[in-house]
């Protein structure tokens, strides 16, 4: 079993921690302060409770999984002898760079550093460390305990050893990894987020209601969830920031973010996490 650090206990970090601890790994979950940490731990426990209720795990297994998790305030308080760290803080390059600089100092030289970024450059994050060959993208999908895919992303100088380590870990967690070379949005978000952005344009232009846009894509394209409900699940702030990255990186107007998406993010209508997005929760 491995010792793994998870940085950030938000939507993704808590899901990643939940899956790792359940598989018997020792997880060190890092947040900025006790309040956010406790929120994350409560979310993880709720996830296990749901599994117990559905008889997917026993109460003993839940307790064992919870006992595998150590909450930590601040990256500098992590133990150094970790096999892997998975970073899942906010999707902002400067914040991630700061975290990786600190991780590079705190962690042993053997520790592999992975980022769960949705669209940022792995190479640009890796370059702030003294071990760019040990930096890799490990992109989980929301909700982590349910979604099977992990995009394993090679930065410019990610070594085969690092790539294979993360690929094999993903498989051992019951996930299906796909190999992706670094490029804006990787595979899934390069296709998915412009589709969500287009749905926001259709809503803004008054062409169809939110309910009907989602109904149309569910029944007409056989999608299990409509694009607007999916945006609420992902978080409108995350969607906007991926769109901004695609727009800036490719410089192609087809990626321009929808003004309605921007307006809703400014109004803190971020989807499920704030109770209001394209739909109310
Ligand atoms: P979130 O906003 O729910 O959680 C981020 C957490 O990181 C917050 O709790 C924040 O307090 C914490 N944080 C910020 N700076 C920190 C630091 N220096 N040290 C420790 N903790 C810190 O965000 P979410 O949705 O979990 O996204 C995290 C990452 O995962 C982003 O890069 C995002 O693009 C990516 N992602 C998000 C998906 C989604 O559907 N929400 C899907 C796949 C990837």
The end-to-end distance, rounded to whole angstroms, is 39 Å
Provide the β-strand percentage band.
5-15%
Structural class: alpha/beta
Q: At CATH's second level, what is the architecture of the largest domain?
A: 3-Layer(aba) Sandwich
Order of helices and strands: EHEHHEEHEHEEHEHHHHH
Identify the CATH homologous superfamily of the largest domain. NAD(P)-binding Rossmann-like Domain
What level of helicity do the residues show?
Answer: 40-55%
Bound molecules: 1,4-dihydronicotinamide adenine dinucleotide
Count of folded domains: 2
Looking at the structure, the CATH topology of the largest domain is Rossmann fold
Can you tell me the CATH class of the largest domain?
Alpha Beta
Number of helix segments?
11
**In order across it, which strands form the biggest sheet?**
3-2-1-4-5-6-7-8
Major sheet description: 8 strands, mixed
**Count of DSSP strands:** 8
Spans of at least 5 consecutive residues whose pLDDT stays below 50 are: none
- Global morphology: globular
What labels would you give this structure?
281 residues; alpha/beta; Rossmann fold; N-(1-d-carboxylethyl)-l-norvaline Dehydrogenase, domain 2; 8-stranded mixed sheet; 8 strands; 47% helix; globular; binds 1,4-dihydronicotinamide adenine dinucleotide
Quick structural summary:
47% of the residues lie in helices and 15% in strands. By secondary structure, it is an alpha/beta fold. The protein has two domains: 3-181, NAD(P)-binding Rossmann-like Domain (Rossmann fold, 3-Layer(aba) Sandwich); 188-274, N-(1-d-carboxylethyl)-l-norvaline Dehydrogenase, domain 2.
